[in-house]
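Data card: per-record layout.
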Amino acid sequence: MTKKEELILDIQNLLNSYDDVNSTNINPDLLKFIDENTLIDIIDSLLSQKENNKDSDAVWLETFKKYR
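The structure for this 68-residue chain is written out next.
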């Protein structure tokens, strides 16, 4: 497996880790013109989005502590 194929698989796995996404399949032929650095940037962006969602969920959950 090439490095680009591994990166594409990582992107698929990240997309599939969202609760409302069940099966994302990326055709590697569609991404063969994207360089490795851009694929890594996509992964970084997805990880940042997941982190931001996690942080906003934590803030939302904190609002309920006042009712305890």
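Known properties of this structure: Residues 36-62 form the longest helix (27 residues). Residues 25 and 62 are 36 Å apart (CA to CA).

See the next section for split statistics.
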